[in-house]
Amino acid sequence: MYVDSHCHLSFPELASRLPEIRAAMAEASVDRALCICTTLEEFESVHALALGFDNFWCSAGVHPDNEDVREPGVDDLLALAARPKVVAIGESGLDYYRLGERSIADMEWQRERYRVHIRAARASGLPLVIHTRSASSDTLRVLREEGGGQARGVFHCFTETAEVARAALDLGFYISFSGILTFKTATDLRAVAAFVPLDRCLIETDSPYLAPVPYRGKINSPAYVPWVARQLAAIKGMEVEAVAVATSRNFELLFDRTTKIDPQRASEST
Fold this sequence. Notes:
The protein is of the alpha/beta class. The protein has helices spanning 12-15, 18-27, 43-52, 74-81, 108-124, 136-145, 162-170, 187-195, 225-236, 240-254, 263-269; strands spanning 2-7, 30-35, 56-60, 86-95, 128-133, 153-155, 174-177, 201-203. It has an eight-stranded parallel sheet.
């Protein structure tokens, strides 16, 4: 019924609890999850999750925050994109939140890494999973410079303004909302969620981070994504089942490399 479009099940907080997590997902009617890669070094463990279960898929990419890791080239990402059950490039993007003593000019390495991911997404035909934090202007600028309108993808864990959402939508991208949408302080974000058309919305947990209310402060899990759906339904004045159906359909349309599942096989693999 529900799809978690962005989680990190390879992270140690979750990897050691996978049977428990999958049982909780089944109980919460969360039938699919996209496991996101954040370094090339991590890819094999993320890919193993996708190969190990009918209702998991994965991405290939290097997160903008990760330094002192293997730097990806377009060919590296294309080779990984050709693997079974790899349905996306990323997550990639720009993050200026932790500049420290560095200037934005010093982050050219991050912008170049982002360009590599956009080029790989365009070449592979796979959607791009975009992370942006305190860098929305450059995130959009670089995307446009690299022919972003010829790519497709999602701005994940969206926390930006309606203007940024509009620009992303104009480029053909989806907007994904996380547990932040349920936070008491997220009034502006709920206004953005009201603005984004339902047929361009995805829901996610970004597990193990950002657990939604009423689990805020705890380790997040894909089983909690229905709480995001409930908040989105309340914002849009509709039944949560309709949000579940719409966001699941959107997931299938965007990550369209066999992300539909046989319910019987999924049940057997749980």
